[in-house]
Amino acid sequence: AKPAATATITLDGVDVAFTEGETIYDTAQRADIEVPTLCYDPRLEAFGACRLCIVEIEGGRNPVASCTTPATSGMVVHTQTETIEKHRRTLLELVASENPEENIDPLRGFASQELNQLLEQHDVQPGRFQGEHSGMSNKDDNPFILRDYDHCISCYRCVRVCAEQEGDHAITMMNR
User: Fold this and answer.
1) Helix, strand or coil for residue 159?
2) Which three-class secondary structure state does DSSP give residue 93?
3) Mean pLDDT of 83-110
4) DSSP string, 13-62
5) Do residues 124 and 93 make contact, with C-beta atoms less than 8 angstroms apart?
6) 93 near 129, Cβ under 8 Å?
7) N- or C-end of the chain: fewer Cβ atoms within 10 A?
8) More confident of the two residues 143 and 114
9) pTM to 2 decimals?
10) Separation of alpha carbons 45 and 102, rounded Å
11) How far from 103 is each of 36, 50, 116, 151, CA to CA, in Å?
12) What DSSP element (H or E) covers 116?
């Protein structure tokens, strides 16, 4: 059983109770305050790679990744300021610039579906940034795992699940 909530933080003007050890992201999720992310997975240690979950803390110098920042009693957090939203849109544009296809079959790229949903939610029109595309080779003879490297969104979840959940460390990211 989880310990009882012992303190509160203010999230977008709402006081929300949290338990010691919870992050701002955990607390926001429980309070149904939407904070976007592409790299978060509840099965894994917080990673903070995608930076979409950044929030502003009153009195803080810079925005922080909510998935890696512990909730602290009395903390006042803003999850959707103009600055934060601009940052998120730019990050989404950068990720989208690596993935040229817009309509991807869900069987070819689940994470790409998440990306497309976030692009739509944040009214992001890809195309401002141009550069290298994800993926290098789709040559993979494994009959049990379907991977399409052309739709990688650099969330690192596949690598982390392999390492943290399977203890295998069989895959890694290259050329990032």
Assistant:
1) helix
2) helix
3) 78
4) TEEEEE-TT-BHHHHHHHTT-----SS--TTS-----S-TTEEEETT-SS
5) yes
6) yes
7) N
8) 114
9) 0.77
10) 30
11) 21, 22, 8, 11
12) helix 110-121
Report which DSSP code applies to 121: H
> What rounded mean pLDDT belongs to the chain?
81
- What's the rounded Cα separation, in Å, for the pair 14 and 6? 16
pLDDT in tens, 47-68: 788 899 999 999 999 999 999 9
Nearest to 45 by CA among 171, 128, 160: 160
Tokens 């998440």 belong to residue: 114
62 phi and psi angles, rounded to 5 deg: -135, 160
CA distance 95 to 155: 10
Residue 52 has what pLDDT? 93
Strand order in 54-57's β-sheet? 14-18, 7-11, 76-78, 54-57, 64-65
Burial of 163 per CB tally in 10 Å (0-12, 13-18, 19+)? middle
CA gyration radius, the chain: 18
Give 42 or 111, the one with higher predicted confidence: 42
